[in-house]
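Exercise 7. Predict the structure of tRNA(Ile)-lysidine synthase from Citrifermentans bemidjiense.
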Amino acid sequence: MKTLVTKVRNQNLFQPGETVVVAVSGGADSVALLDIMTRLECGLRLVVAHLNHCLRGAESDADQAFVASLADNYHLPFVSQSCDVADLARRERLSLEDAGRRARYAFLEQTAEQYGAFSIALAHHQDDQAETVLIRLLRGSGGTGLSAMAGTAGDKLKRPLLQVSRVKLEQYLKQRELSYRTDSTNADTAILRNSIRHELIPLLRRYNPKVSERLAATAEILAGDEELLEGLTQAAYQRLASAEGGQVRFQVEPLMKEPRALRLRLYRRALTELRGDLMRIGLAHLEAIDLLAASPRPNAEATLPGACRVSRCYGSLSLGHAAAQAPPLWEQVVAGEGRYPLPGGGVLLVERLPRPDSLDTGSRWSAFLSPETVPFPWLLRGFRPGDRFTPLGMSGAQKIKDAFINEKVPPQLRRRIPLLLSEGEIAWVPGVRLAERGRVTPRIDAVLRVEILEITP
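Solution. The predicted structure, encoded as tokens:
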């Protein structure tokens, strides 16, 4: 059918002369795709790639042999790889379909890199698109999910048959007298996609004979809407988000002025940047982030799948990887000058200096202490409930918890701040204030400069 070849050619998905990896399972769709790709007449250098999922024993091996023979008939290079998809699914706690997809795309990307290919051609067609829309609708999805598969995805993935029905592909194979393999599991309606293909779509055809075509068209319309919305999201993200130190941070006040739908998209974008994907992230997680942002509580946090932490700290909302915490009870002796790594991350620097003209270090994370009133050895330890100190310039004791709150120290950072004690008394609370005990008096000629480096929430 020249019209089918022309239809694929007119999409201009491939540059003349480029190398293209063609994913061929041996089934009808991929066999048709390979044959069409060989007839595009634009000098493509094709590589046939087949992944053996090792799910059907001898049948899977026969599929692999069939595709190898097919590649040989076209005089094309053939690349194959075997993957125990069932074992991968168990190890990664994935469905067989998700595990197979992950293994397949990893193999295709690897093959493309090996051959210097700019494109990977996949055999998804119009009926696959309709099934995908229904699967995502049944599982619960927004516009992003319902736009389903794109004709081009990322830098390499191309789907030339996305506007071609299964019936037309079968007609093409018959006319070209091409044989293909049939996967016996395709008839198993215990698998959701097969159930939709063999039971739900035939039922829906009673209401609209062209239901697959209409679902695919709906996905195409939604994809166009998504492109527009994604542009708006990108502009808002550049305006509202700041990324630093493995975190994405939003200021709550301007964030909450945006429409809820845009806020949820911003959270999706932030999580994608942090994690690389949105696996196991659903609407409930995005809504939990939004509730945290809108909460009247100044400090709160939540943990999301993928070891991702979301925290609200006063006027900012931060998304990042769950940080390693310092041991709940720890102590470290500081015998004198030097550099001391801290259990929860960060470093304490201690050095003896001539007394400077100004005792203002310009940072709450450094201070000058009196070597007379704060003698060595010192003890560093984490905050404990009930800890008190007398802040510099005051006469009464204050709870350190209250000092943290007054200075708006994030809760997750409080657990990692080392308190500096000398002779059993707190002399300095880094990030908050020097204690009266550490006061440097005018008659002192030398001071101890202390500084904490690299403690971040």
